[in-house]
């Protein structure tokens, strides 16, 4: 039987930098496959040289393919450096991810200051050449070094993960003679009943499972409840005619928020009597201030075949969940400045809901809004997703309720804004969803490796898994020591 080994080159000691290697040995021949190649963020970059955070510190030559679960930057951000290190193999991903990935990487290169440089152009050309789009639920024969292919195979297939558009968990099927092993990498699993996207369907069989644990110790609010909370919170936030700042990732979270806000406004339009706050909300400007988010929203619209049944039903009713009357998108930097100046001049007069990247306030236009408006008591900051340790978002979340302060670009700013959190809008599965994913497998894993989470989340998830799989070998993934190569 083939011998398999899983090496973790990221997301073993935290929640960013996802990068895992599956090593499959047949007799004297070894096959290597990389699953994701993400960027480290937040506290995981503290006290470390920025170049070390980007470095590919494992051998590239043995890699026969890269398989991408989805195109969030903490899963794909180091791909340019992987290519620069000499990786020339295929990059397999779902059809939707194949459309989105070049846009994500091109933006990342611009942020890194490589815009217009020869290296950036070369990387983008190679990336597009190496991407191979794969339909969901289709087995793919992976390249192998083995000369005994009639008796051996290594296959993979992408299955809907429900995290963002195009996201997938990946099944590997490793066969030698009459024996085979099924190994699954969860990537980031989506929460059940996520807006727009179908929920992940657990696989029939799994022998080894590598599973994320971002919310391994928490459970989200139900979707109906969190939508009600969001609507009520937005009404209260704009009652003083101030602005609501919502940090959100350009892909996934932004589109889900637009979908839910459209639903809230649609219900108000069909309500006979509105309160004063509801009347304001019904006329408020919803502004997406992110060129990348606007582009991804267009991609979401063009990939309607990936939407769930509820979203398609709205389309049949003539509604446009990602394009409604009160929605405005901001593209150029000058427009961005004009919007901020306008809102500042009309502070307390013109309410607005601003959705801008990045989701953890670690960069992007949301930082400019925070610097300009965080000290105003008519401002509300609403977090709807996970905030990693060490990020500006986590610091605002931590010190905001007591009206403490944060440092932004060297400025000490008092948090006079009200700070709110609705965890239910995370695109990540919660503890209940993660356990459900395993329980609904017909043939459950003999070994589970827990990655992509804080220590408390990993340990909590491990305990829950052992409650119903006491004989399972449940371990917390450890960063691979490259010196052992």
DSSP helical segment count = 15
What's the story with the biggest beta sheet?
A: 7 strands, mixed
Largest beta sheet: what is the strand line-up? 7-8-9-10-11-20-21
SS-derived structural category? alpha/beta
The poorly predicted ranges are none
Q: What's the helix and strand layout?
A:
Elements: E1 3-10, E2 19-26, E3 29-35, H1 50-54, E4 63-67, H2 73-76, H3 79-84, E5 91-94, H4 95-111, H5 118-130, E6 131-134, E7 140-141, E8 152-160, E9 168-176, E10 179-185, E11 208-212, H6 223-237, E12 243-247, H7 253-269, H8 276-283, E13 285-289, H9 291-302, H10 309-316, E14 327-330, H11 333-345, E15 352-356, H12 365-373, E16 380-383, H13 392-399, E17 405-408, E18 411-414, E19 418-421, H14 431-439, E20 447-451, H15 455-468, E21 473-476
Structural summary, described in words:
- With 485 residues, the protein is an alpha/beta fold.
- 33% of the residues lie in helices and 23% in strands.
- The chain has 15 helices and 21 strands.
- The chain has a seven-stranded mixed sheet, with helices on one face. A six-stranded mixed sheet has the order 1-2-3-4-5-6.
- Helix 4 packs antiparallel against helix 5.
- The protein starts with a strand and ends in a 9-residue tail after the last strand.
């Amino acid at each position: 039987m083939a011998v398999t080994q899983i090496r973790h080159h990221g997301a073993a000691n935290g929640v960013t930098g996802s990068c895992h290697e599956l090593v499959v040995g047949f007799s004297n021949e070894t096959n290597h496959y990389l699953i994701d190649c993400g960027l480290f963020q937040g506290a995981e970059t503290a006290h470390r040289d920025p170049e070390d955070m980007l470095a590919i510190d494992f051998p590239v030559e043995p890699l026969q393919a890269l398989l991408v679960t989805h195109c969030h930057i903490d899963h794909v951000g180091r791909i340019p450096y992987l290519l620069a290190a000499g990786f020339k193999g295929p990059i397999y991903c779902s059809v939707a991810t194949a459309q989105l990935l070049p846009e994500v990487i091109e933006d990342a290169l611009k942020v890194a200051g490589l815009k217009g440089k020869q290296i950036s152009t070369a990387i983008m050309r190679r990336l597009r050449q190496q991407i191979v789009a794969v339909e969901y639920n289709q087995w793919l024969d992976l390249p192998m070094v083995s000369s005994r292919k009639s008796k051996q195979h290594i296959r993979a297939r992408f299955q809907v993960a429900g995290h963002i558009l195009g996201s997938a968990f990946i099944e590997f099927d490793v066969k030698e003679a009459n024996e085979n092993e099924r190994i699954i990498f969860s990537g980031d699993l989506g929460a059940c009943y996520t807006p727009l996207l179908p929920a992940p369907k657990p696989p029939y069989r799994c022998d080894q499972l590598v599973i994320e644990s971002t919310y391994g110790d928490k459970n989200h609010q139900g979707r109906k409840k969190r939508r009600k909370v969001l609507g009520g919170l937005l009404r209260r936030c704009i009652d003083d005619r101030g602005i609501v700042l919502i940090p959100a990732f350009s892909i996934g979270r932004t589109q889900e928020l637009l979908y839910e806000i459209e639903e809230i406004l649609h219900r108000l339009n069909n309500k006979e009597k509105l309160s004063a706050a509801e009347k304001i909300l019904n006329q408020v400007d919803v502004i997406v201030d992110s060129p990348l988010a606007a582009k991804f929203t267009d991609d979401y619209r063009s990939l309607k075949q990936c939407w769930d049944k509820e979203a398609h039903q709205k389309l049949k009713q003539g509604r446009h969940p990602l394009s409604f009357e009160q929605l405005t998108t901001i593209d150029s930097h000058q427009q961005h400045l004009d919007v901020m100046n306008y809102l500042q001049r009309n502070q307390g007069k013109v309410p607005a809901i601003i959705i801008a990247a990045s989701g953890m306030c670690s960069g992007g236009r949301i930082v400019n809004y925070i610097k300009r408006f965080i000290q105003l008591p008519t401002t509300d900051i609403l977090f709807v997703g996970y905030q990693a340790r060490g990020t500006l978002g986590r610091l605002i979340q931590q010190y905001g309720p007591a009206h403490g302060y944060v440092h932004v670009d060297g400025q000490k700013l008092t948090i006079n804004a009200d700070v709110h959190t609705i965890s239910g809008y995370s695109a990540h599965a919660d503890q209940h969803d993660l356990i459900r994913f395993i329980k609904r497998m017909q043939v459950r894993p003999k070994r589970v490796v827990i990655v992509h989470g804080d220590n408390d989340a990993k340990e909590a998830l491990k305990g829950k898994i052992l409650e119903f799989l006491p004989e399972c070998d449940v371990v917390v993934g450890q960063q691979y020591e490259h010196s052992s190569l």
